[in-house]
Amino acid sequence: MRMAVILISSLFLCASAFAAEDAADLANRAKFEKECAAQIAPGGPCADVVKGGGGRRGCVAKPENLDKATPACKAVIEEWQAMQKK
């Protein structure tokens, strides 16, 4: 019985941790859409990358593309990279 209680409580803790990560990722994605719009707009270096899964953020994070980004866009990418390392 104790094991069941411990298992259930650990599952709740894991679920809340995943929810926090999802919220942080959604917030970062919204900032990315706003601050890095020039990079992902038609004619930009990452315009042809499919939306979703971090592909566009990964494209903008490449050194050759990040050099062309605004300081606000660079900050969003750095935040995203820090989230990936956790």
List the helices and strands and how they pair.
Layout: H1 2-35, H2 37-40, H3 55-61, H4 63-66, H5 71-85
Helix pairs in contact: 1-5, 3-5
Give me a quick take on this structure.
Helix content is 74%, strand content 0%.
- In total, the number of strands is 0
Low-confidence stretches: none
Q: Shape from CA axes? A: elongated
Q: Mean pLDDT, as a whole number?
A: 83
What is the number of helices?
Answer: 5
Q: What is Rg? A: 17 Å
Please give the alpha-carbon distance between the first and last residues.
33 Å
Structural class, from helix and strand content? mainly alpha
The sequence of SSEs as H and E is HHHHH
The percent of residues in helical segments reads over 70%
Strand fraction band?
A: under 5%
Biggest β-sheet description = none
Structural notes for this entry:
This protein has 86 residues and is mostly helical. The protein is built from five helices and no strands. It has helices spanning 2-35, 37-40, 55-61, 63-66, 71-85. Helix 3 crosses helix 5. The longest helix has 34 residues, at 2-35. The chain is elongated. The protein starts with a helix and ends with a helix. The relative contact order is 0.14. The model has no long low-confidence stretch (mean pLDDT 83).
